[in-house]
Amino acid sequence: MVTIKDIAKVAGVSPSTVSRVVSNHPRISKETSQKVKRIMEEMGYHPNVMAKSLVSKTTQTLAIVLPRPAEELFQDFFFGELLRGILAQSTRAGYDMLLTAATSPHDESETVSRLVFGRRVDGIILLSSRVNDPLIDMLDKHKFPTVLIGRTEDHPNILSVDNNNEQAAYDATMHLIVQGHERIGFVSGPPTLTVAQDRMQGYQRALRETGLPFRSEWVVEGEFLQQSGYRAMSFLMGLPERPSGLVVIDDVVGFGVLRGLTELGYKVPDDLSLVSFNNIALSELAQPPISSIDIGTYQLGYTASQILIRLIQEENAHQTRMIIPHRLIVRESSIHTVAKRS
Amino acid sequence: MVTIKDIAKVAGVSPSTVSRVVSNHPRISKETSQKVKRIMEEMGYHPNVMAKSLVSKTTQTLAIVLPRPAEELFQDFFFGELLRGILAQSTRAGYDMLLTAATSPHDESETVSRLVFGRRVDGIILLSSRVNDPLIDMLDKHKFPTVLIGRTEDHPNILSVDNNNEQAAYDATMHLIVQGHERIGFVSGPPTLTVAQDRMQGYQRALRETGLPFRSEWVVEGEFLQQSGYRAMSFLMGLPERPSGLVVIDDVVGFGVLRGLTELGYKVPDDLSLVSFNNIALSELAQPPISSIDIGTYQLGYTASQILIRLIQEENAHQTRMIIPHRLIVRESSIHTVAKRS
DNA sequence: CTGAAAGCGCTTACAG
DNA sequence: CTGAAAGCGCTTACAG
């Protein structure tokens, strides 16, 4: 391992000077700087990251904390896209990313404590947004730089990046209404998640504003899993009065819905129209392709990383809540093709 | 920040003693240990990770290096599953994971150099396996603990975890042959990837052993993208003599194949049977569900992390190459259901 | 069983 | 523009 001292010795200068050259200190002569840089190159010098961060009290590292049952998240296919956004921005800003998946709740706070109090990372990106999350409580209390992808009511000071999920669900529902549907159902996710609550609100508002009926039996709650969508269908399609349009919380669930309908012998969109959320890459490959609300997954990650780094570097948040725009991608699942219509 | 000195002062012992208590040094009296531990608890002491690793010259951290065009990999839906395996094992062993995505080739070696020579991590997990990879050359030359998920001929000393892709492709092909197919095609990926080469070998061996014809026009190379599969179909189905069975390099490509066939008006498996690789979660949700070779993605990641950590801790590799078993999951895309047959 | 001292590799006022 | 010195928070022979 070649250190700053080794370079100093060879270059005939002091370690302080080498350090200044490395950090591009302004008051270093051109010659000295060039000579030292040449020697660093020749000797293959690389600064010891640990030593540097010990004195600078900064690690140039952020941690991504995955929700506890990581399985669920990894099933969410937009996770890769989210990660891609986070990585793109943090790499650009010169930050490394630490990935953490806790197994148990106790484990989770244990792990995060270690990272936070052990000064292992400069900031934390939370991907979960459970209500009354003790983790957020802790981070907030210690004023540790944190950004939440999602929404929290309880902690107005915590940075967050989210979609306007209420509006997104409103848009999805309105799209079905514009297509002429009057009986619209909602296949939701875990009701404790804010995202599910928000989308439920938007769905209901669209019905209310257009004077269409809201029927509690047309709302099915479940998980972010295809099985949920699958099961929802055997229930919904068994009702005496069935919806003709469906808003679905997630594309993967949408896949399950599609499979359920196919097995029951129904055709999409002829018997039932479908709009879901997240616009994962495979949505357009479904049979038929699924209409989906694109939530700007990449931008969600990119922005989260960006505002967290800004907070770390400037110590004051310009804006604690960022909203990423969404847009509806219309595909065959919610619109009759001209050919089929005629 | 409460340090070891603060604890020492309050406990009335030396910093050395506190340090020994933290690391459970055997020759420390029960009383001292208990008192110090109590005070640490009270004062909320957390060891500074950076200081520790500066002196111990170990970081308890591994880096995952994503292949250059991260987009491609993230499209591969089994990436999440792989990561899950890696994280499960490394968390268990007390290692943190650093995630790195380089943008350019120059960037990549720059980033990895920084991590390796800056003593930022103790080991590296490579997810790419390009031929003649300068990164592997570099890591091998410096004997830096590295594990490759995939295969390399050039570096027999580098740890690697892989499937027997030749055999897997052989099995997939034989499955189609057993179903009675005599004209079998292969939709492959980028021919420079070892995985594509290996699977091609297995495909050919199955044909050879059963005396079936190999036709170069029945082999289409492409990317790990659904578009590749889609395009392959317009070509293959336009041939005067078409295959009746198809081995497809990846499930996502398989989705594209399915879409292409549907648009062209063909039915799977009646007009064409299909087997692909990786068994991503959505394979069973395709219409029809896709038969796929499960490559044990989770185990691939888990094992990679495991043997790397063993190498780091024991300094000698028991076995440089590990093979994860695969198995064929038969679904509707390659087998006529009884109902349909009758 | 415990402490004083040196050191890991770097940075940064302070002095010149 | 440059150097000597102190220090970041920890560990670990060495001595007792």
UniProtKB/TrEMBL annotation, chains A, B:
InterPro entries: HTH_LacI, LacI/GalR-like_sensor, Lambda_DNA-bd_dom_sf, Peripla_BP_I. Coiled coil: none annotated. Signal peptide: none annotated. Pfam families: LacI (PF00356), Peripla_BP_3 (PF13377). Transmembrane segments: none annotated. The keyword Acyltransferase does not apply. One of its GO terms (molecular function) is DNA binding. Keywords: DNA-binding, Transcription, Transcription regulation. It comes from the Bacteria. SUPFAM superfamilies: lambda repressor-like DNA-binding domains, Periplasmic binding protein-like I. Residues 2-56 form the HTH lacI-type domain. This is DNA-binding LacI/PurR family transcriptional regulator. The lineage of its organism: Bacteria, Bacillati, Bacillota, Bacilli, Bacillales.
